[in-house]
Amino acid sequence: MKYAECLKCGQTSPRWSFFGNTLAALFKVLIGTLTGSKGLVADGIHSAADAMSSLFILVALKVADRPHDDKHPYGYGKIEYISTLCASIFLFVGAGSIFIDALKTFRQGVHDMPGNAALLATVISLCFSYLMYDSNKCAGTQLSSPAMLADANESKADSITSIAVLLGLIGAKLGYPNADTVAAVIVSLFIFNMSVEMFLQGINGLIDMSVDPEIMAEIITVSKNIEGVMGIKSVKSRQMGQKNWIDLEIAISKKKSMTEVHEITQIVRAAIMNAVDGISGITVATYPM
């Protein structure tokens, strides 16, 4: 974590995402309906899906913050990956509804010219989505939170789809009546792609994906520098949401007493916890050498 303020920002950003996406969805659907913009309505549906996923993420972050207990010795961090899966499903369903509505519009041949207010509403939505993306991306990166990074990706998708809608509205004004509906199709396809990527990220987290090689190398270096550690037999890791769990096996001289071995393992555990960020727990096993 780069700054002390990141923790506070990480607590407030998910709340702002939920309320912000809810307001954005209502705003886009209302203006899109009044102005006849299919693309803006589609973008509003996207924001509604974002709001629902933000709610799941907000709840997940509350649960993930609980300390580990006897029933959950590794903590509750993986709930963040479950929230990512839920968010991806909401996005997928939202993209499907947008795509089907756009196909109906093409089939019916109804192409109303969107009102000028749709252009202004889209620009406002674009700026708002980018601000939410920037906030969640910063907090999620600093806190290594997969849930907040998923929320940031949704806001990023919202920004890009708003650009597509804006281009569609401009095209409609220039005499291409299908442009707005084409923009809705582009929005749906982009959301489909985002939902699949988020789903795969959630799956990877649930199957105990390892931490970055740089962190593993740092753990090995810290361990080897402890007096009494003769070598590293194995080091395994698992990502638990914002935190990581380490399973370490070190070599210690067989001449050491059980008390000395215990003291060395405690020193190794404390050294890693102090030197490496994002570690929630460490299991240190030993073998004689």
What does this structure look like?
With 289 residues, the protein is mainly α. The protein folds into two domains: 5-206, Cation efflux protein transmembrane domain (Alpha-lytic protease prodomain-like), CATH 1.20.1510; 213-288, Alpha-Beta Plaits, CATH 3.30.70.1350. It contains eight helices and three strands, in the order αααααααββαβ. It has a three-stranded mixed sheet with strand order 1-2-3, with helices on one face. Strand 2, helix 8 (258-275) and strand 3 (279-288) form a beta-alpha-beta unit.
Short description:
With 289 residues, this protein is mainly alpha-helical. It has two domains: 202 residues, Cation efflux protein transmembrane domain (Alpha-lytic protease prodomain-like), CATH 1.20.1510.10; 76 residues, Alpha-Beta Plaits (2-Layer Sandwich).
Tell me the fraction of residues in β-strands, as a range: 5-15%
Average per-residue pLDDT, rounded, comes to: 79
Number of alpha- plus pi-helical segments: 8
The N- and C-terminal alpha carbons lie at a distance of 38 Å
- Based on CA atoms alone, the radius of gyration comes out at 24 Å
Q: Tell me the CATH topology of the largest domain.
A: Alpha-lytic protease prodomain-like
| Name given to the CATH architecture of the largest domain | Up-down Bundle
Provide the helix percentage.
Answer: 55-70%
Low-confidence stretches: none
Total separate domains: 2
Number of strands: 3
N-to-C order of helices and strands: HHHHHHHEEHE
Task: Please state the oligomeric state of the protein chains shown.
Answer: single chain
Any idea of the CATH class of the largest domain? Mainly Alpha
